[in-house]
Amino acid sequence: MMKILVIGSNGQLGWEVCRQGIERGFLIIPLDVPEFDITNRPAAENAVLKSEADLVVNCSAYTAVDKAEAEQEPAFSVNKDGPSHLAIACNKKGIPLIHISTDYVFDGCKEGRYCETDRVSPIGVYGKSKADGEEKVRLNLKEHIIIRTSWLYGVHGNNFVKTMLNLGREREEIRVVSDQHGCPTFAGDLAGDILDIASRINSGQKESWGTYHYCGGGSTTWFGFASKIFEIATGYETFKIKRVIPIKTSEYPTAATRPANSVMDCSLMFREFNIAAPSWEQSLDNMLGRYYSEIVNRS
Ligand SMILES: NC(=O)c1ccc[n+]([C@@H]2O[C@H](COP(=O)([O-])OP(=O)(O)OC[C@H]3O[C@@H](n4cnc5c(N)ncnc54)[C@H](OP(=O)(O)O)[C@@H]3O)[C@@H](O)[C@H]2O)c1
User: Fold this and answer.
1) Is the pTM of this model over 0.90?
2) Which one of 3, 94, 180, 242 has the lowest number of neighbouring Cβ atoms within 10 Å?
3) Fold (topology level) of 3-159+184-217+258-288
């Protein structure tokens, strides 16, 4: 039975990897703060070296994009030093690492989809700390797979979908940015595909190390995403919301600047692993179905 050490097991993605991993018969070893701190090098190395794991999946991160602008130190500790500690330990132990990164390593100026070969050029502290983390993984461990994902949302944890649903219960109008383009990604899809990749590594497919893009199929804007959330969710509950209003980024100032375009090309993942996420609309439909049956209707 394959043993997987899942770091960041209480986060949106880590929680799904653990849940689906257990369902699929993997032996899952979950780790997260406060019991485990990835920024503590001896603790991180010991966790890997003493775990008897066959593979490490790093879903942990400092994900507060705006807060990171003022709190650079913790962002770099978790997103740069943490993956470095894991990669060094995995190298010592001779096991691979699947590490999760972000579309925010790009500046958003490209017209068209970002490929893995495009130059990274982050425009905020979070993106810079994640780009540095990727580099540390590449530098310290050959046997790695870095998966860049985007606009992640899950049944577990806080995210844009749940924020919109909560606002829609309280307000008649919501103003949402309509000039940032990206791909919403359901954590449930990514978790399942991470476990598929883990299985392939375990069964000897070991020539595919490197960096890959993974996000929901198609693309949209935050406004398009919000509109679709309410279109689907009104099938489950009645909201106060009457209008979702598109606005420009300049009308919604935030501490961190976001890339105007972070749509990613995921064809390399498909060519190498035969893996592609469903359309973002289909995945949102699936997530909301689970959200209403697992969370809302049980509370
Ligand atoms: N969320 C997005 O929209 C998005 C988009 C693109 C890429 N990603 C990437 O996808 C991955 C998963 O994101 P996510 O949304 O699942 O993140 P998340 O929900 O914020 O989960 C991250 C987990 O890591 C934990 N963590 C933080 N500091 C830690 C430390 N020092 N040691 C150990 N664990 C620590 C967090 O604990 P606390 O909650 O207590 O801090 C949390 O449980 C990350 O690599 C992220 O950068 C996310």
Assistant:
1) yes
2) 94
3) Rossmann fold (3.40.50)
State the angle between helix axes of 12-23 and 187-202 in degrees (0 to 180), rounded to the nearest 10: 50
User: Ligand 1 pocket, 108 CB below 6 A?
Assistant: no
Residue 185 CB–ligand 1 contact under 6 Å: no
CA distance to 22, 54, 69, 237, 255, per residue, from 197 (Å): 16, 13, 34, 37, 36
Ligand 1, atom 42: closest residue by C-alpha? 11
Active-site residue list:
126
d(CA 58, CA 146): 10
What is the chain's mean pLDDT, rounded? Answer: 96
Q: How does pLDDT run across 195-252, given as a tens digit for each residue?
A: 999 999 988 876 799 999 999 999 999 999 999 999 999 999 999 999 999 999 999 9
- Which residue, chain included where needed, has tokens 């602008």? 69
Distance (Å) from CA 62 to ligand 1 centroid: 6
Domain ranges, ordered by start, for the chain: 3-159+184-217+258-288
Residue 297: closest CA among 152, 155, 172: 155
**DSSP letter string over 221-250?**
EHHHHHHHHHHHHTTT---S--EEEEE-GG
Cβ–Cβ < 8 Å for 124, 65? yes
In terms of DSSP H, where are the helices of the chain?
12-23, 41-49, 67-70, 72-76, 82-93, 125-140, 160-170, 187-202, 222-233, 267-273, 280-290
Is the distance from the beta carbon of residue 39 to the nearest atom of ligand 1 less than 6 Å?
yes
Distance CA 4, CA 159 (A): 26
